[in-house]
Structures are given as structure tokens and as C-alpha cells.
Amino acid sequence: MSEHLQKKAKTVSLWGGRFTGKVDPLMEKFNASISFDKRMAQADVVGSQAYAKALCRSGIITEHERDALVNGLQQVGEEWKNGTFEISPRDEDIHTANERRLTEIIGSDIGGKLHTGRSRNDQVATDIRIWLRDEARILLNILKELIKCFVDRATKEIDVLMPGYTHLQRAQPIRWSHWLLSYAFYFKADYERLEQLISRCNQLPLGSGALAGNPFTVDREFIAQELGFEGVVPNSLYGVGDRDFIAEFLFWSSLTMCHLSRWAEDLIIYSTAEFNFVVLADAYSTGSSLMPQKKNSDSLELIRGKSGRVFGDMTGFLMTLKGLPSTYNKDLQEDKEPLFDAYDTLHGVLQIATGVLATLTIKKENMLKALSPDMLATDLAEYLVRKGVPFRETHNIAGRAVRLAEERGCGMNELKLEDFQNLHHLFTEDVYDIFKYEKSVENRNAIGGTSRKTVEGQITLLENWLA
Fold first, then answer.
1. Active-site position among 35, 64, 199, 288
2. Last residue of a domain, one of 96, 116, 136
3. 152, 199: one domain
4. Which residues are listed as membrane-spanning (predicted)?
5. 0.85 exceeded by the pTM?
6. Which of 159, 231, 242, 409 is the most buried (most CB within 10 A)?
7. Are residues 25 and 168 in the same domain?
8. Chosen domain end from 101, 116, 131
9. Residue 288 confidence (pLDDT)
10. In a 10 Å sphere around its CB, with 0-12 CB exposed, 13-18 middle and 19+ buried, how is residue 289 labelled?
11. What is the domain extent for residue 267?
């Protein structure tokens, strides 16, 4: 290619024919997206290769031209992979950059045919779907590793008992494994939502043109098959204007971060000296610049903090979407930065969470010591239920027993038999059998409960799902 053609390829905009005046340099910078959308380089390359093949099938270009385009694009992709691609100051986005470089490699006579019937509107919609579909599958793998870590710990530590909480008040005894598995099921639901999201995202918009469709009868189903899409977006206006899949991913990211944040908050509390149930590994903790004794759970605090960042990505983008007229508007360029930020945050956080959980040390003796007889007040009420007394009545009786123990400054298990019999005549000596934490836990034996059998059932369910 001549030096003149190379220079021309580097300076002409894709849309420049309509304009005679120069664009304000500040506007060029304001308009550009190459600094962040370059991460879609490979998606843009493969999308363009598939489109070149479709143009050939439609008779718009020859097989020789198709091969030149496909091979030239392959070289562009390799340059991105090995870090030798040089971005030009006039490359306003990844599409401009790739087509400019393609034309430098194979010449404008052939390179200029690639965009026939195609708009950057359907091109970017395709690229971003390819990128999100492929990257979201990576998140699925990382998320599954986190879930597996929960299941592995639950299996190994099934005999550890701890207080269960409501309103952050000690409520009833549960298994530590039961608490672990509760989050495993949160993340399993997140995994399944992301799978469903990928399927909805994996629909081809290419062939929609700028908004009205493609005039060259390109075989869109062929393009979809080439690119691994599950189907074709059936309406061209919808094809170029839809970003619901990004909004949905941002919601998914926010909800998943919400679950991660709640899990982190539990562990932050459990790691305090007041609870002292768990100890974070040094690898996921930091110290204080002033207080030598401090060991801060910064990994967990950052997980909790970054949830707000991801929520902001979602709400900001929804505000961008809500006022747009139909089809493509430049505002949609604002879809990528929140998408990439949320993705990068989840990609890191899920791996940190797995590391924290895998290296966590539990203090089962402290968990056991935190159990107290008053946590068995419900068991006391259920004792009378089994003897035919209505629960509403037994609830009141158990509450009076709790109050009596508090007044006497003793545990409920230290009340005398006559104290219980003064509350109800059906109390007998076997009432003291209820003050056994293991028995209380084992009584919760319906599906989903905290007994050993039901917890093992949860583990089996998750293991089968993971397999």
C-alpha cells in the first residue's frame, strides 16, 4: 500500500463526507470512546469477519475479497492480542480503529467494502453482546468456584453449632454449615440468573443497519450461527436501540454484590472481639498505621463498600436510558463504562471472596459458648405443644419462663421443676431434656432445616448441581 493511501486511511473519518468544517478538538475528545471500548477489539474483529462472509454469500463481494477481509481482520486481531496495535489520534472508537487498520493492511479498494449495509449502530450492538456473553461465562466459572468452597466447608464443619440471629439478636441454635449453605443458595440463584441473562443477551442484532434493516439480503441466521448466537433480533429498531441486556447485567451485578455484601457483613461482625467466631487469614487482612494490635478485615469491608459502586453503575445507566427516544442515540455510548466497571468489580470480588472463605479459621468453642438457654425458649413452647397445648398459649408460658429466669439471674435451665409446674401442670422432669443444643438443632428436621440430615440433604443437592 502506498504511503499516500496509508496517510489517507489514518485521517478520514467514517462519517466525514457530509462535513466540510473541522471538528473542535475538544469535541473529538468528548466524542471518542476508544479509550474504553478497545476492550471489545476481538469481538469487533470476529463480528466483522462473519459479516464479510455474509456479504460474499449475498454476492456483494467476491470470494477473493472475502478472504482478504477475513485474513486482514485476523491480522488486526493478532495485533491487539500481542499488544502491537497502534491507536491513531483519529480513531474515535474500536470500529473506526479496526477498519482504519484493516484498510492500511489490504487497501481501501477492498477494505472499504466491509461496511456495506452495516452501521456502527448494529455493529456496536453486536460487539457488546459478544463481549458480555463471553465474559459473563467467565463469571459463571468463578461464581461456581465460590459456591463449591461454601459446600466443601459445610461438609467438613457440619458438627459445629452456633447461634442463629434475627434482628442481630441471638435467636435459635443452628449449624455453622447451615449458615454457610444459606449463602451458597443465594449464589446458586445468582448463577442461574446470569445463565438466563446470557441467553437473552445472545441474540444477534447485526443486519439491522442504522435502524431500518439491511438492503443486501444478508443471511442473518448464517451470521448468528457463525458467531454462536442463539437467534436473531427480529426487529431492526429494537436491534440497534436495545440495551436492556446491559441494564439487566448491571442489576444482576448489584444483586450479586448485595449478597456478597451481606455475607461480608456477617463475617465482619463474627470476626470482632465481641463475637470472636472467626479469624481472617493474614492474606486478606491489614493492620493499623497507629494501633499495632489491630487486624482489620479490609477485604470484607471493600467487598461491602464496592457494592455501592456497582449499585451506582446500575442507577446511573438507567437514568441514561429512561429519557431516550427510540433506536440509537449517542447517549448509548455511556453503556460501556458502567458495564465494564461492574464486570471488573465482580470479577475481582468473587475471587477475593473465595480466597477469604477458603482460608477462614473458625473458633467453634466460642460459637458454642455463645449459645444460651434462653435461645431454647421456642423449644420449651414446643415441648407443651407436643402435649396438646395450643402454641399461642405455650408461647406465652415460655415467655414467662424467660422472664422468671431473668428475674432470678439464672439460666432458664436452672429453674426448678416446681417453677415450670407453676407455669403449667404438664411440665414434668423430662423438661430438662430440651436444654440440649444438639437436640434442639436435630428437631429442625423438615426439609430446609438445620438438623444434620437436612443439612446433608442441602449439601447433596448442591453437590449434584455442581457436578
1. 288
2. 116
3. yes
4. none
5. yes
6. 242
7. no
8. 116
9. 66
10. exposed
11. 121-207+231-369
